[in-house]
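Quick illustration, no need to memorize.
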Amino acid sequence: MPNSFKSSYTLLGTTGDTTLYTTPANATSILRSVYIAHSLTSSAAPQVDISVGATGVTTTAYLIRNATIPYGTTLQIITEPVVLEAQERIFARSTTGGNALNITLSWMEIT
């Protein structure tokens, strides 16, 4: 089974659910880090939820819920690996759109 380290960078542009990553059907992923940064010059401090769940299923587990991210700060939300099975996804929702939050993920994909 080959292991591949990967990362992604996402600006949250809307207040709806934004899928950050979905584990491929033939893989298992080990989520290593999730960082959230408030990158806009603004006095507003948006709140953010980061969840994991299966594709097409409404039941989710929150990694963090209603976390306030003040301007100019970065929050690391996991300190231990999180295993995502095939077709499970990680997604985010913010109270503020407009690309205020930048999310960086790092994971290992095992196929």
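The mean pLDDT is 88.
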